[in-house]
Design brief:
CATH class of the largest domain: Alpha Beta
Distance between the termini: 10 Å
Number of domains: 2
Order of helices and strands: HEHEHEHEHEHEEHEHHEHH
Shape: globular
Helix content: 25-40%
Strand content: 5-15%
Strand order of the largest sheet: 7-6-5-8-9
Number of strands: 9
Largest sheet: 5 strands, parallel
Radius of gyration: 19 Å
């Protein structure tokens, strides 16, 4: 039993069975991460290239750690230190790297569809580590794993994604993945940060966070991209926090425990107050560890497929 595709490019259209297999496989790898010796020889002899054309700390580090835990040989390229600065195209960069007999490429790129393009021009497995404003499938999977670990299921849960939905690849992967697994998904944010016609994806839209809090089991709170404040999407960070910030007081008024997720990095006291980020219902640090387990599961399933 294996995945239905040689690549992981996004969660839109990925069968429920594939997602279930990845989540179930990650359980075993999380057990390994909690052992004194955290390394297994599963991908010994495999070479994996991390190709990052966009800045990343958490995702890149998580992938590198997952690859090394599986005993793979790891090479990491960033755009600033590669021939891209000399005008080399993505296709030529990838083909030159593949000529070195690699097995898998993990790529982050600022252009939507870049991972799909790459999968068509090289023979190696391709894992999308985030492409433009399109998708971030491994983040969506680790969010789902964290929720399933907390609640014991995904089917029937109600999850609200809060904040900058318009520019978020995390939101899209969460919407596709959670709905496939039977969860209900809502989004909440200023009208300027909600994509037009997003209701066509089957989500409910809220513009007042206090209206949705009593209805949900979990909030996935997205980073407000500070560089966009000047774009006129909302008046100020203070105003955003006033109307959409997740605070302890707001959660107490909801009258029920609500689990909190955040893909990081957090702008404390903007989208999340500090006491919520560090509070008893926060799953944020668990998400970090779960991210390594999920990425180990994906690398294993793709790397050992016949």
């Amino acid at each position: 039993m294996g995945l239905s595709s040689r690549h992981l490019l996004g969660l839109q259209g990925v069968p429920k069975e594939d997602i279930q297999l990845i989540l179930d496989t990650a359980v075993s790898f999380k057990e390994i991460l909690n052992r004194p010796i955290k390394k297994v020889p599963t991908l010994q002899g495999k070479t994996i290239v991390n190709l990052f054309f966009e800045n990343s700390t958490r995702t890149r580090t998580s992938f590198e750690l997952a690859e090394r835990r599986l005993s793979a040989d790891v090479l990491t390229f960033t755009a600033s230190t590669s021939s891209v600065t000399k005008g080399e195209t993505l296709k030529d960069t990838a083909r030159n790297i593949e000529a070195m007999k690699i097995d898998m490429v993990v790529m982050r790129h600022n252009v939507a569809g870049a991972a799909d393009f790459l999968s068509k021009v090289i023979q190696s497995n391709v894992i999308n580590a985030g492409d433009g404003q399109h998708e971030h499938p491994t983040q969506g999977l680790l969010d789902m794993y964290s929720l399933r670990e907390k609640f014991g299921k995904l089917e029937g849960l109600h999850v609200c994604i809060v904040g900058d939905i318009l520019h978020s690849r995390v939101a899209r992967s969460n919407i596709f993945g959670l709905q496939t697994m039977g969860a209900k998904v809502s989004v909440c944010g200023p009208a300027t940060l909600i994509p037009r016609e997003i209701e066509q994806l089957g989500v409910d839209v809220y513009h007042h966070i206090d209206d949705i809090l009593p209805k949900v089991d979990a909030l996935n709170v997205l980073r407000i991209q500070l560089e966009r404040e000047a774009g006129g999407y909302f008046p100020s960070l203070r105003e955003f926090h006033r109307f959409f910030g997740v605070t302890k007081e707001r959660l107490e008024k909801a009258g029920k425990p609500i689990s909190i997720l955040h893909p990081g990095p957090i702008n404390r006291d903007v989208e999340l107050s500090a006491d919520v980020a560090d509070g008893p219902h926060s799953l944020i640090l668990e998400q970090v560890l779960n991210g390594v387990a999920i990425r180990m599961a994906i690398l294993y399933l793709l790397g050992t497929a016949q």
